[in-house]
Amino acid sequence: MVEHDDRIDFALAAYRADGDWTVQDLTHDHLGDIETIADALRRLPGDGGAVAMVAVDEDFFVIVRVAGSTTRVLLSDVTAAEDWELAESAVEFLGLPDLGLEDEDDQVPAGDLDLLGDLGMQAMEMGLLLDDVDLYPDEILSDVARRIGFGDQFDDAVGLTSA
After folding, report:
1. Which of these ranges, 16-20, 71-75, 109-113, has the smallest mean pLDDT?
2. Residue pLDDT, tens place only, 134-162
3. How many CA atoms lie within 13 A of 88 on its CB side?
4. Which of 13-27, 91-105, 108-122, 138-152 has the lowest mean pLDDT?
5. How many C-beta atoms surround the C-beta of residue 94 within 10 A?
């Protein structure tokens, strides 16, 4: 059974204009599915499009990047699609078959590990972060935000203190 995604930890959009990052909240209305998030991102200015980071119930996260008509998606754990509409939407957007995973304790990321590669977060680094099962979504996304240039704004927006 898929639940309504009302346990959003945070949903942020970030974009860079004239070399400076701007981070803002995405409203709950923008979080129904991947297409709705992408539509919200298309409305933002930005030199290279915009990036959304959405964390749900300390369980999983989705990164959506829109540049022009191109939408790229990374889902931290496909097993979340069993319980969460947003994760199910990401799996559908990515065109993944029903994976029928035996062990739902294993986190299995899906999508574009290199969607932030041109901003400084390479696919291999993203994969290593996703492999660390001791990290919560906010910790992973804080690290990602830091590596691509808006870590302080991200931490301020989600209430993390900088280490």
Report:
1. 16-20
2. 999 999 999 999 999 999 999 999 988 64
3. 10
4. 91-105
5. 16
Tokens coding 57: 């119930």
Provide CB contacts within 8 A for 38, sequence distance 6+: 64, 66, 71
Strands (E), the chain: 8-17, 20-25, 50-56, 60-67, 70-75, 110-111
Beta-carbon count within 10 A of 158 CB: 19
Per the DSSP assignment, residues forming a β-bridge with 17 are 20
| CA angle in degrees (0–180, nearest 5) for 147-60-32 | 105
Q: pLDDT tens digits for 30-52?
A: 898 999 999 999 999 887 889 99
> Is 144 exposed, middle or buried, given 0-12, 13-18 or 19+ CB atoms closer than 10 A?
buried
Burial of 160 (0-12, 13-18, 19+ CB in 10 A): middle
3-state secondary structure of 74: strand
pLDDT at residue 104 greater than cutoff 90 = no
Would you say the C-alpha torsion 115, 136, 37, 162 has a positive or negative sign? negative
